[in-house]
Write a structure and sequence with these properties.
405 residues
Length: 405
Amino acid sequence: MAQDERATATVAAVCVISALWSYGGGTGGLLTQTLPYAARVYGVDDAALGTGLAVVRVGVLLALALGLVVDRAGRRRFIVVAAVVHCLLTALIGLAPNFELYIAGHVALRCLDVALGIALGVLAVEIVPAGNRGLTLALLLLANGLGLAVAVAVLPLAAAGRSGLAAAYGLQLLALPLMLHASRRLAESTRFVAHAHERHRYRELLSSPYPRRIALVGVAALLAAAFFVPSAEFYNRYLEDVHGFSALGLVVFLFVTGAPSIPMLVWGGRLGDRYGRKRVGLPLSCAGGLALSGFFLADPPWIWLLALAGSGLGSAGGAALAPYRSELFPTRVRSAAGTVVVAATVAGSVIGLTVVGRLSTGIGVGPAIALLGLPALLAVAIAAFGFPETAGRELEETSAEALAG
């Protein structure tokens, strides 16, 4: 669907900021990638690392306060300020003198980054035409992945001791001028401007029809995360421990089975916009989840095919369904609702990781993760029977804005 130059420039700026931000923040960024080297620098064991990672997740709960700030102050204003603070805070974390301050810095960073990621997505969704929302979010996810790839690329630097770890974090400062340049192309959401005078409180999510919607989206997100987060966290280790992959073999496997998911992400977002979120997203997500479950149960050479199908189909299905988090809630609390859904996702990830940890000693890590595919299928069923079809409809209609007003 055609869109004006203002919307296109804003989407491009949002993607640039997302790519630069995701290097130091978010799941899969520097914390995840450099964790083994941080453990050596600070002289901590696996138990301390596990505790530290659990504490960092508290940042998601703290982000509940910032969700309302995005709705009150404006998407553009929050993004610009948060992007600057993100760069400065990331660089400071690399200078932390001890592990406790290192983790404390990441708690603050995770809080900020959750809200920043939501603000970027909400601005993108609100500024593009109805027929482009899925594709726009797919492009945003691709940009996010680019930043994570850069975080992987600096691992040799992070491995060079304390100075290397500090340098890896300090590189985030190089993104600051680019972020400020991109922010000049950001246009504020006209939807936010139209609703800026309204109340921005979590209590607004308790008025009909939003309690049912937040429950449906939140529970579906929780159940899906209980499967997909452990799958991602244990993926590489499973290949190494169970199937004996070397470091080089692991890189080849990840490239061969993961690269096709890039065009599939865009394809899924585009098809979801054109033919319907549920019609496209649910079958693809279901097929991707089943393939991924099979991957954790199969032997070579089937793991190659199943990993390829799980990655590609799951990416396409996820891109088709991604707009729901923004489409079902009103402008005045759209960011707040997104923060609640992220909190539910984190709760699901904790549940999934705990279950895998307990079951793996008895039945093995592969079967334990595969078993969690059942809750993921339940999430698909919830979406199938509980979510309305929103493709091609304006946000004021999909969010029941008039009813809520």
